[in-house]
Write a structure and sequence with these properties.
Strand content: 15-25%
CATH superfamily of the largest domain: paralog of FGE (formylglycine-generating enzyme)
Distance between the termini: 24 Å
Number of helices: 5
Radius of gyration: 22 Å
Structural class: alpha+beta
Helix content: 10-25%
Shape: globular
Number of strands: 17
Largest sheet: 5 strands, antiparallel
CATH topology of the largest domain: paralog of FGE (formylglycine-generating enzyme)
Strand order of the largest sheet: 11-12-13-14-17
C-alpha cells in the first residue's frame, strides 16, 4: 500500500506522493464495494425517503464560526471557479470559491441543476452526508486500505488501476484534466469537467472510476505520517482503520478525512493524484463539486455445522448456498483443508460473487462449483 513515483517525476509528482510513503504491506478482510460512485438519482431517493438536509443546505451558525461576519453565514459550498488567465499554482484560492446556494442539487451554484445529470456522481456532499447515506443504505464508507485494495483491481505495484501506462495504446482510461490548469480543460478525454459514472473501462475487479472524475471519501482520519507509523510497526498491517486522531500540519486545527482517487481536475501540472496509492484530504463538513463517495459492505455470514456441512444462513444479496467440508468434524473456526461450495440455485448467482472465509476467498460461478483448497483457488 502506498504510491510509486509518478511518471516523469518532478516537483508536482513528488508532492503528490509525499504523504503516501513508505510503501508497506497491508491485509484487508473481504468486503463488497459499489461498482460506481453514488449517483444523483440514488442520493435523491435517500433524501426523498428520509428528508435529509445536507451540510451545504444548512445555514452556518455563529457558534460554528465565531467571529465570522453575519453576512458570511450563508448556506453554500465550494465550487471550482477557473480564472480567465494563467495564474501561479501556489495558491488554490485562485480557482476555488465559496458560492452561496451551491449544494448537491445545484452543484455549480444556484444557476445549475441536476437535469440530465441523474447518472452523474453526487457531489457537494460533506463527510456526515456520505455517512448518513451509507447508514440508510445498510452500508458504510470504505477504509483507506480497503479503497486502495479495491482500486488496484488485483494488480500489484502498478501506477494506475489499469497498469503502468496512462494512455495504453492511446486510449483514455479516466476523466482527468487536459489543457492548461486551471484555465482550460480541453476535454480531450471526452469530457470537460465531471462525467457520468462508468464512462471509462472498469478495473480488474469491475469497479469504475477508481481514478479521476470525482474524489471519494474514506473513513480514515488524515495524517501525513500515518504510513510511517504503519511501516515502523513492521510486518503486515491487518485491516488498518486509520489513525486515532487527525492532523494536517498545513491546517492543524481542522479535522480532516482521507480522500482517494483524484478528480477531473487532476493533472501532471499540479495534482497527479490519479496515481493509485496517492492521497487527498478534506475537512469533515466541507463538500466541493469534485468530491463524491461510494459505499462498501462487510461480508457477514453465520455458519451452522451439521453432519460435516456448513450451511450459509446469512449471505449478502440473498445468495445462499452450502459449504461442504471434505473432512468430518470441520467447523467454522477451523475450516478443513478443502471446502467446496454447492449453490442452491446456480442460475441466480452472478458470475463473480466473492465471499471471505478465515482470510481467504473463493468465487462462485453460475456454471459450476468452485473449490477452495488450503486457502487458494
Amino acid at each position: 500500500m502506498g504510491a510509486m513515483d509518478p511518471p516523469a517525476i518532478d516537483q508536482v509528482g513528488m508532492h503528490a506522493a509525499a504523504d503516501a510513503r513508505p510503501i508497506h504491506r497491508v491485509y484487508v478482510d473481504g468486503f463488497w464495494m459499489d461498482k460506481t460512485d453514488v449517483t444523483n438519482e440514488e442520493f435523491a431517493r435517500f433524501v426523498k425517503a428520509t428528508g435529509y438536509v445536507t451540510m451545504a443546505e444548512r445555514k452556518p451558525t455563529a457558534e460554528d464560526f465565531p467571529g465570522a461576519p453575519p453576512e458570511n453565514l450563508v448556506a453554500g459550498s465550494v465550487v471550482f471557479s477557473p480564472p480567465d488567465h494563467p495564474v501561479p499554482l501556489n495558491n488554490h484560492f485562485q480557482w476555488w470559491s465559496y458560492v452561496k446556494g451551491a449544494n448537491w442539487r445545484h452543484p455549480d451554484g444556484p444557476g445549475s441543476n441536476l437535469k440530465g445529470r441523474e447518472k452523474f456522481p453526487v457531489v457537494q456532499v460533506a463527510y456526515p452526508d456520505a455517512l448518513a447515506y451509507a447508514k440508510w443504505a445498510g452500508k458504510r464508507l470504505p477504509t483507506e486500505a480497503e479503497w486502495e485494495f479495491a482500486a488496484r483491481g488485483g494488480l500489484a505495484g502498478k501506477r494506475y488501476p489499469w497498469g503502468d501506462e496512462f494512455q495504453p495504446s492511446g486510449k483514455w482510461m479516466a476523466n482527468t484534466h487536459q489543457g492548461q490548469f486551471p484555465v482550460t480543460d480541453t476535454g480531450a478525454d471526452g469530457y470537460v469537467g465531471i462525467a457520468p459514472v462508468a464512462q471509462f473501462p472498469p478495473n480488474g475487479y469491475g469497479l469504475y472510476d477508481m481514478a479521476g472524475n470525482v474524489w471519494q471519501w474514506t473513513s480514515d482520519w488524515y495524517r501525513p505520517d500515518y504510513y510511517q507509523q504503519l511501516a515502523a510497526a513492521g510486518g503486515v498491517a491487518r485491516d488498518p482503520q486509520g489513525p486515532d486522531t487527525p492532523y494536517d500540519p498545513a491546517e492543524p486545527t481542522e479535522q480532516k478525512k482521507v480522500h482517494r482517487g483524484g478528480s477531473f481536475l487532476c493533472t501532471d501540472q499540479y495534482c497527479a493524484r490519479y496515481v493509485v496509492g496517492t492521497r487527498g484530504k478534506g475537512e469533515l463538513t466541507t463538500g466541493t463539486n469534485h468530491l463524491g463517495f461510494r459505499c462498501v459492505k462487510s461480508v457477514t455470514f453465520s455458519l451452522a455445522y451439521r453432519s460435516g456441512i456448513h450451511r450459509v444462513s446469512s449471505w449478502p444479496g440473498d445468495h445462499r448456498g452450502l459449504l461442504v467440508a471434505d473432512q468430518p468434524g470441520a467447523c467454522a473456526n477451523a475450516p478443513s483443508p478443502s471446502l467446496r461450495r454447492f449453490p442452491r440455485n446456480t442460475g441466480s448467482i452472478s458470475p463473480a460473487i466473492r465471499i471471505a472465509l478465515q482470510g481467504s476467498y473463493f468465487i462462485s460461478r453460475s456454471d459450476g462449483i468452485s473449490e477452495l483448497s488450503n486457502g487458494k483457488l
